[in-house]
Structures are given as C-alpha cells and as structure tokens.
Specification:
Largest sheet: 6 strands, mixed
CATH topology of the largest domain: Ribosomal Protein S5, domain 2
Oligomer: single chain
Number of helices: 9
Shape: elongated
CATH superfamily of the largest domain: lpxc deacetylase, domain 1
Distance between the termini: 49 Å
Radius of gyration: 27 Å
Number of domains: 3
Structural class: alpha+beta
Length: about 475
C-alpha cells in the first residue's frame, strides 16, 4: 500500500448515461491538495455546491448509494469511489453536470483506465489510515447478512454471496492486495435478476440500464412472449437467453463476476468512512444498505479513537523530514538537536519524534544513578517541533528565526527515561498573525501523555546584512 497521499497529475473527463436516472452527464476528475479527500461538485446547480463523500451524507441505498449535502444530490457513487480506492488515490474533486455518474459499461474499469491514463502524483503528506483496532461486527438476521472487520496491517476483502439460484449458486471473491484491484475486480459488472427488472422499472429506476451496462440473470423459465416484451423494453430487435442463464448471450468476464462486483461495491461504499482503511473485511451476502450501515459503525469507532487525540508512530513509515532536512531548517547543533524526525506536517499541526538514549550527554549529570530526561529539554524538543510548523507557513524558511516568547500551563505528567520515544504534537490554536504563533504542545510515550504546554513563538526575518 502507498504510504504517502496521492492525487492525479491532470484533469480527466468521462461521459455517459446514469443507470438509474437515465440522464447524460459529464464527469471531470480534478487534482486536489493533501487532506482534501473525495468530493463531488454539482456544476449544473446554482452555486456549484460540494457534496462530501461521507457516510453521514448517505440518503438512499436502493440499488445504489446516493449522497446529498445542502440540497445537492449525487446518485450511485460506489463505482467511482471504488476506482479511486482501488488506485490508492486520496485526494480528488469530481465535477459533474448531472445527478448521477455515468454507468459506462457497469463496472469501475472505465474510471480506472481514465485515471491511469493521466497518472498519479505522490504528495508530501502521509496517508491518514484508519487502522481497525479490534474486531467490529455487523449482522442482519432476516437477510442473513454478516460483515466483520479485523485488525490487519493491510487492506483485504473477502465476499461471499448465495442467491439460491441454479445459475449463480454460491460464490466468493477475494482481494488480498489492493494493488490487484484494477486487474482483478474493476471490470466486474453490475447485475440483477430478470424478475427484478419489472420492479426496478416500476420504482423509476434503471432508466439508463441495458445489456451493455448490466448483466441480467435469468432464474426462471422465460416464454417467447416475455422475450419479445423485453426486446421492446430495451429497444432491441430481439432478446435471447444464453445457455448459462444470462440474457442476450452476454459472456461473464469471470466465473464469479457477480461476487467480484459485490466486492467492488463494498470497496466503494466503505470509502465513505472518510479515510483509507487498514483491516481485513469479511462479508457474507453484503449489499448497499448493509455496507453503509457497517461504514457508519466503522466511522463511529474511528471518531471515538480520534477523540483520544493520541498521535501514533510507525517507525517503518517514511519521514516527512529526516534529520538532515531538519538540520537545514533549524539552527540548532549538538547538543541541542532534539528532533530526529517529522512524521506528519499540515498547515495546522506537526508531529515530531525524539528518540531518547542513554548516550544523551545530559544523563551524565542529571540523576546519573536514575537517569530522567530534564523537563526543560522536553519543552525544548517540543519548541523545536513547533518551530518547524511555524517555519512551514512561510516561503524560504531559512530566511527566518523562530524565538519562543512564552510558555504557559506547562505540566510534566510522567518521567521520560532512556529507551523512550517521545511523540510530540504541536497544533496551532489560532491563525498566525503578525508573525506571532500560539500553539498547544503535547508529548507522548506510547499512548501516555508525559508533557504538555501552551507555547507562543515569534517569527522574525533574518537581517542578512548583519
């Protein structure tokens, strides 16, 4: 899996009919900045409103997932979102001039091909994964639906379906590596049973459906008269039933194409959690309603974890700034280089790492028989981390000094010992004005808060003539 966020290198356009609304729409994928996420923009509506791809915005799950925000609605978003997740694209704005993305040929492959044609661009920010911390379970007894998410340092999905149909039988599909999505899952098309077609039409759905963008499974004996009616319905000269029970001799792309498409739908629906997921997803008989309900459960857990506000550190993830890059930004030298790595950096907060070792020069004189890191040096490490955040807000940061002019509400809650790793988070409390930055600093060892303070810094331009 990618460790850094990605967007696309250039805009790309697709166009076609929506399967349920029957409306022609043009959809443009646009590059977006870090932490933007997935957003639709209805450019055909006054004010061109934005619709965030968020499970809280889901308003309908009948034969597709529909989102709405501030009166703007986008139908059947799951195939588009699956393509983005499958290509590990994190940030994109999707402008659309109609109510529904084009169905294309019923899968995600045309979106994947369009996005791959323009290519992906790596961004400077690490991906903000939601790592499933514990088993999460969902069940619908009446429909025999079961979904589970288990902790895993990867993203894998397994889907099982059973339609009690002699044509399809029981099927399962698996995606063990997200990088296989384009080749193994993206081309799997949407499908329905013949007995559902009339009901869907009566429900004012599948106005844009035809044999070029959906598989129709025949699970009952069909009379010649019924075939004639179907031909008239789909405006075709004739309709036939293939030997395997698929209308109009449409050949399956995979023996388990329906199960693969259900997996595709689940990838798209779970994108509405709002962050890339690390976990093992196991699903029996999923559908849009169950997927969305499960996504809501995952998001609730994600928000609960986020409220703890404890930064995490994975030493295997690449740094935003390493020690050499930090040296270029900060003037500190031995023995006052107290930040080893920057792991996250946004406009509002920074996370830095300080590895504490017995070889630190201060341990020789600070409780040598009971080595404890001096609190003032913890504050200094916090100040240096915050200094990088402040310098990141200006062009040519090497032309500026950061001086700390105030420390308030400082608390030392636990001792820091050799062998500890300080995870330091500094977050702006208000926008920087006239070069003055006020931020909250917190230092953790694991999930335990050890030091915190409110710090004020002054950003001063260097006098290069001095």
């Amino acid at each position: 899996m990618y460790t850094k966020q990605h967007t696309i290198k250039a805009p790309v356009t697709v166009e076609g009919v929506g399967i349920h609304t029957g409306a022609i729409s043009k959809m443009v994928f646009l590059p977006a900045e870090v932490n933007h996420g997935y957003k639709f923009q209805r450019v055909d509506i006054e004010g061109q409103p934005i619709v965030d791809c968020d499970v809280d915005n889901v308003v309908d799950v009948s034969r597709g997932t529909t989102i709405e925000q501030d009166g703007a609605r986008v139908n059947t978003v799951e195939h588009v979102l699956a393509a983005l997740v499958g290509l590990q694209i994190d940030n994109v704005l999707i402008q659309i001039d109609g109510p529904e993305p084009p169905i294309m040929e019923g899968s995600s492959i045309k979106f994947v091909e369009a996005l791959m044609e323009v290519g992906l661009e790596e961004q400077s920010m690490l991906r903000n994964f939601f790592e499933v911390p514990e088993g999460v379970f969902y069940k619908e007894d009446d429909r025999k639906v079961e979904i589970a998410a288990l902790p895993l340092n990867d993203y894998r999905l397994t889907v099982m379906v059973d339609y009690n149909s002699p044509v399809l039988g029981s099927q399962h599909a698996a995606l063990n590596n997200i990088e296989d999505f384009a080749a193994e899952i993206a081309s799997s098309r949407t499908f329905c049973f013949l007995h559902e077609v009339e009901a869907l039409r009566k429900a004012n759905l599948i106005k844009g459906g035809n044999f070029n963008n959906a598989i129709v499974v025949v699970d009952q004996v069909v009379s010649p008269e019924t075939l004639d009616e179907l031909a008239e319905l789909f405006e075709l000269p004739s309709v036939e039933v293939a030997e395997e029970g698929i209308l109009n001799n449409v050949e399956l792309r995979h023996p388990n194409e329906p199960a693969r498409h259900k997996l595709l739908d689940m990838v798209g629906d779970l994108a509405l959690v709002g962050r890339p997921i690390k976990g093992q997803i196991l699903a029996a008989r999923p559908g849009h309603a169950a997927n969305v309900a499960f996504a809501r459960k995952l998001k609730s857990l994600m928000l609960k974890s986020a409220r703890k506000n404890v930064p995490t550190y994975d030493p295997l993830q690449p740094a935003v700034y390493d020690v050499n890059q930090i040296e270029e930004m900060l003037p500190h030298r031995y023995p006052f280089r107290l930040v080893d790595k920057i792991t996250e950096l946004t406009d509002n907060y920074v996370i830095g790492i300080k590895n504490v070792t017995i070889n630190e020069e201060f341990f020789a004189g600070h409780f040598p028989s009971n080595p404890v890191m001096p609190g003032v040096l913890q504050i200094e490490a916090m100040g240096q981390t915050g200094g990088i955040l402040v310098l990141n807000t200006v062009d040519n940061p090497s032309n500026y000094w950061t001086y700390f002019v105030g420390v308030e509400e400082c608390k030392f809650r636990r001792m820091v010992m050799p062998g500890d790793t300080l995870i330091i988070k500094c977050e702006l409390l208000m926008p920087i004005r006239r070069g003055i930055a006020k931020m909250k600093g917190q230092a953790y060892v694991g999930d335990k808060l050890v030091t915190e303070a409110i710090m004020t810094a002054s950003l001063v331009k260097k006098d290069n003539n001095a």
